[in-house]
Amino acid sequence: MDEPGLFDGEAAGVLPATPRPWAGERGPGAPDAPLATRLRPTHLDEVVGQERLTGPGGLLRLAVERRRVPSLILWGPPGSGKTTLARILAEGSGQHLEALSAVASGVADLRKVVEAARARRRAGQGTLLFLDEIHRFNRAQQDALLPHVESGLLTLVGATTENPSFEVNSALLSRSRVAVLAPLEAAAIDALLDRALADGERGLGHRRLTLSPAARALLTTSAGGDARVALNALELAALDHADGTAIGAEAVTRALQAPTLLHDRAGDQHFWVISAFIKSVRSSDPDAALYWLARMLEAGEDPLFVARRLVVLAAEDVGLADPGALPLAAAAHQAAHVLGMPEAALPLTEATLHLALAPKSNSVKTAYAAAAAEARATPALPVPLWLRNAATAHDRQMGFGQGYQYAHDDPEAVVDHPNRPPELTGHRYYRPGTHGAEPERAAHLDRLRAAIQRRRAGRAPGAPPPEGGPDGSV
User: Fold this and answer.
1) Helix (H, G, I), strand (E, B) or coil at 177
2) Do 168 and 212 belong together in one domain?
3) Spatial contact of 444 and 413, defined as CB atoms under 8 Å apart
4) Is the peptide bond before 342 cis (omega within 30 degrees of 0)?
5) Does 364 map to a domain?
6) Cβ 183 vs Cβ 225: under 8 Å
């Protein structure tokens, strides 16, 4: 279905069968290019794994068919096809493709692109700027792009692995469409492996190689959704095989070496994986919690970051249901600090298992939230006189401390004067949970309140509290 206002009623066009390679770069058919480059799709029908965008009615399919590409931010993990799609979009819309990497380019490079685009526009051709890793451009550099995107001089196709809501200026983002690319699923990787083995011109088809089932499974699962990883590992594994032979799992294992775990220490994966870890502990799922813990630590995450989250989890999600959880989490944090990796994995695992298996209560968090809300709503309520510290003779003359009851002087260690401003009498913030040790804490709190009520019931009707303090419930 057409998206109103996106293509402005442009006449439909067709996609040429073979796009032109970028100037100065080895084309997809270059014999010395890596297998992943040689097999790079040249039209949308060859793209796998992004059917929501490239299939019938998809945003990118419509852009190519109408020969009208809006400014886009392609957001997806490595190897999901961002660069390939930029090539196809440029060719399909009949625009000249300019490519910059935000890592190695700046405003001076952008000025050159703009000047060339102006000259090209006078000749009747548009310019599509593919800006790889657009999140590497700072705010000022992104601002320099804005007027040229807004005027239509440049059609921007930015590629990023990071959440564009955080990494791209809101003004630039509002003038672009965000296309979310998914990591390639196993079926898509499998289809690319078949293509590589069958294509005699660009792939390995001329060698009549096959993949054992174990080798194929290893490639599809270890690629991490990255087409380049799978294809380049296949090419490396094929080097030691004679034509017509089967590539086994051992060769693939050697080619993969240590597969790169999909994680980072500052971007989306960092936040997504720690979120999965926290939610698994909170859900009392120790196996899931250990999986996400290992994902982080094996990918090089800072163990102290994980340890700090465990301390927060102990207070926020276990709390008084297991009073030993917080000391154990704090001890794991200290142990991780002293040991470092790889040994730090053991105390972190112990703390993770303890917290995942512990009874859960968020009463600590909700109690503080309720008290904080009341404190913000009543910031000027005076501290009652009987609770004020009588540090000087003047304080005592003002009545500070008069009526205060010292709890240790009482056989039950309770007092019957209120410990808050009278306006807040009876307000409850802490509500014990029903798991672990908290029911006993609730019973203890009930006993304390009952003892206070007995004290008040024993006084003569209308008699003031001892030493003249004000009356009121706790």
Assistant:
1) strand
2) no
3) no
4) yes
5) no
6) yes
* Contact call for residues 91 and 124 (beta carbons, < 8 A): no
Q: Does residue 262 form part of some domain?
A: no
Residue 429 in tokens: 């913030």
Contact between 201 and 30 (Cβ < 8 Å): no
Question: Count of domains in the chain?
Answer: 4
**Do 246 and 194 share a structural domain?**
yes
Identify the domain boundary among 357, 377, 407.
Answer: 357
Residue that terminates a domain, selected from 180, 215, 235 = 180
- Tens digit of each residue's pLDDT, the chain (474 residues): 333 333 333 333 333 333 333 433 444 555 678 898 999 999 999 999 999 999 999 999 999 999 999 999 999 888 889 999 999 999 999 999 999 999 888 899 999 999 999 999 999 999 999 999 998 898 889 999 999 999 999 999 999 988 898 889 888 999 999 999 988 999 999 999 999 999 999 999 999 999 999 999 999 988 888 888 899 899 999 998 999 999 999 999 888 875 555 555 555 677 888 899 999 999 999 999 999 999 899 888 889 999 999 999 999 999 999 999 999 999 999 999 999 999 999 999 999 999 999 999 999 999 999 999 999 999 888 888 888 888 888 888 888 888 887 878 777 777 777 788 888 888 888 888 888 888 887 888 778 788 777 777 765 444 445 443 444 444
Q: 22 in a domain, yes or no?
A: no
Residues 44 and 122 in one domain: yes
Residue in this structure with the two tokens 């207070």, named with its chain if needed: 315
Reported pTM: 0.59
The CATH number assigned to the domain holding 321 equals 1.20.272.10
User: HEC string of 34-93?
Assistant: CHHHHCCCCCHHHCCCCHHHHCCCCHHHHHHHHCCCCCEEEECCCCCCHHHHHHHHHHHH
CATH of the domain at 250: 1.10.8.60
What range does the domain containing 350 cover?
268-357
Residue at 15 is within a domain: no
